[in-house]
Structures
1.
Amino acid sequence: MSALRIGVVGCADIALRRMLPAFAASPRTVVTAIASRTADKARAAADAFGCAAVVGYDALLERSDVDAVYVPLPVALHARWTERALRAGKHVLAEKPLTARSDDTARLLGLAREHGVVLAENYLFVHHGAYTSVRDLVAEGVIGDVRALHASFTIPPRPADDIRYRADLDGGALLDIGVYPVRLATLLLGPELRVHGAVLRHDTARGVDLGGSALLGDPATGAGAQLVFGMEHGYTAGWRLLGSEGSLALDRAYSPPAEHRPVLRIERAGGVEERVLPAHDQAAAAVAAFAESVRQRRTSGAADTSDAAAMVRRARLVDEIRRTAHLVKV
Ligand SMILES: NC(=O)c1ccc[n+]([C@@H]2O[C@H](COP(=O)([O-])OP(=O)(O)OC[C@H]3O[C@@H](n4cnc5c(N)ncnc54)[C@H](OP(=O)(O)O)[C@@H]3O)[C@@H](O)[C@H]2O)c1
């Protein structure tokens, strides 16, 4: 099957640094066009990746040499441009979170189904082989029954003009950073989690949250997740999964470089093991997974409704954290 032809809307940092190199390196995808609001940016990015430069996102969606669109825009613009791309019959890989509101997520997934195209959300870490190892170990009972997850993802402050400080662009730590530990919790504790409490530190001048924490739990098993996130911190990106007979812990859990060999710490009554796992290029794996979803959709026409339902449930958890959070004004 011929390579999936990718168009990119917006010369975002994540696109230039991580995803365009991954699309360009994959035998399953080819980048045919990059769009920007400004001609100079489009030209510089297109020259770097040997494709067409397009001014304006609509012009990119009109191109017949684009099968799939990658959307790395500020969160508030994901829904609008994803919808336009879906209506143009394009498959879409949207940056995380797919939208800022679960109703929009549900609506877009319905639209993708109607148009017979793939709509995927770009959490890279879920494609890392380390998580296959973790899930295998949990399934084998290495830590017994899963009881709790402690996870944090915190980063130092960003430059003052960063999109994450813009309320009009749906900035804020929950939507940019907190969504990672929420995604992790659903991966390790399952899909039935509910929100039991949350706190957000709200920057009243800029109208965005700078960080917070949330307590989630599975009402059936009692397993809980304590999640911490923020962009006014030292860097942390680790988690610990506690079981009835031991624990697993991982650092650099969300965006390890392709050459990094993750160290999984396994603690049990018999001792502690630090298991060095294989390096894995999670961006390459995410691109391959997206291309494979499109191939399956094209060949069988089958829609993966389980994925769609899980995406909506996760978006509802994020809505619920925002709706119920105790706001601390700073
Ligand atoms: N999956 C991951 O590992 C990962 C990592 C980092 C970020 N992200 C996600 O990727 C998205 C982009 O993040 P980023 O840090 O790459 O952002 P960024 O560098 O600020 O890029 C955002 C792009 O959006 C376009 N844009 C359109 N309207 C805009 C507006 N009103 N203001 C600012 N930019 C506008 C711009 O492209 P043009 O000027 O070229 O039109 C800009 O380059 C976010 O959703 C973020 O959560 C994902």
2.
Amino acid sequence: MITSPVTSPFLVIGGGIGGLAAALALARAGHRTRVLERAPEFGEVGAGLQVGPNASRVLDRLGVLDAVTTHAFFPTRLTLRDALTGERLTSLATGDAFRELFGYRYFVAHRADLHRTVLTACEETGLVELLPDKEVLEVRPRRGGAVVRCADGSEYSTYALVAADGVHSPTRRLLIGDGAPTDSGYVAYRGTVPMEVLARHGGLPEPDGMVIWAGPGLHLVQYPVRRGELCNQVATIDTRRYTEHAGDLTAQLRAAFDQACPDVRTGIQLMDTTRRWSLLDRPPATGWSQGAITLVGDAAHPMLQYLAQGACQAIEDSVALADSVDEHPDDIAAAFRAYEARRAPRTARVQSTARDWGEVLHVDGIGGRLRAALLADRAEDDYQAVEWLYGFDAAGTFGHTTRELSA
Ligand SMILES: Cc1cc2nc3c(=O)[nH]c(=O)nc-3n(C[C@H](O)[C@H](O)[C@H](O)COP(=O)(O)OP(=O)(O)OC[C@H]3O[C@@H](n4cnc5c(N)ncnc54)[C@H](O)[C@@H]3O)c2cc1C
């Protein structure tokens, strides 16, 4: 039996944070959207997510910031410490002065909380149809739109296709064709530990802050989530350097952190090692909007996690996309081109800086000593280095920082 494809104005592939944020931004602008997600349920794997003010600004505009932050933790500072000696290298104060400058606090949320909130908001618009269990196997551009075919044989046609299908995006392959993402050689372990368990081992060195322990080819990030009941931990190692016990995840991770200070070793002992993530990215590219097809989130600009910005950039994409569609209501191809022109310089800078920051975190020997010396006199309320990142306003007035706008 031949069935005609179901037609929708906007079709989003992928119901991760990027896809749902895009659907919500489009719905807020009055557009009907259908989201196809390959998983049997919409959800998020993983634990904590750091959210900078650049993304909070967008979440606020989308009307979900209060709900997203209900169970969030607001660290008073982000502190960089030496993983081997435990020495404090520098801090970034994220309290009142930070909020005054950027308009929003820095927060950390449970991924599932953020995802569920955006999902609920999508449902409440009455304009977003969410279809799980829909793995898209094929995307076919056609005149004035695209048709996608799913694993269950269903087909959907659309005037405007937004692919939010992640770092391995098959849609990107079709548009840009730049092969597989770059494997950095690093892997991350992530999970949560009840804070009371950590407390029995001495607790966090700064219970109201976030700490990044940086060492040679490794680092550990620790911060509270769910109102301080859980500690989120992300441990990262260079598998090319720490090859001992490579066949045994737990042994390899522990061996890598063997020389670390006692606080860090405690965190690593408690780390869930059942699963790990390869850290992949790509160099910045263009060409992610072609005709009636565009990319958002990791599909468009996958980045290393070191600036904690992958999801934040996906969130920024959402309003830039909706605003570009608003500006070109009768020409989707022009809207998608405008969206890419607006986003590409910004996301390229974040992608490249994330790679650089990884180098700073993971230096060894004399590099580590130089890092300590350079950071020694930095004031914790010196925001120069992060103004471009956190002051960015993706909601309409792109290219300006908060300070420029208020000047
Ligand atoms: C260890 C680690 C820590 C991180 N920490 C942070 C942080 O603190 N802050 C931050 O902002 N970012 C962080 N990130 C980055 C962030 O997780 C990603 O950038 C973000 O999840 C990207 O969202 P996305 O929706 O673009 O892609 P994804 O989350 O990958 O979602 C893609 C969705 O598409 C679906 N899909 C894929 N293919 C198909 C198909 N063919 N058909 C249908 N559906 C499909 C998938 O099932 C998935 O639901 C971190 C990343 C890592 C690895």
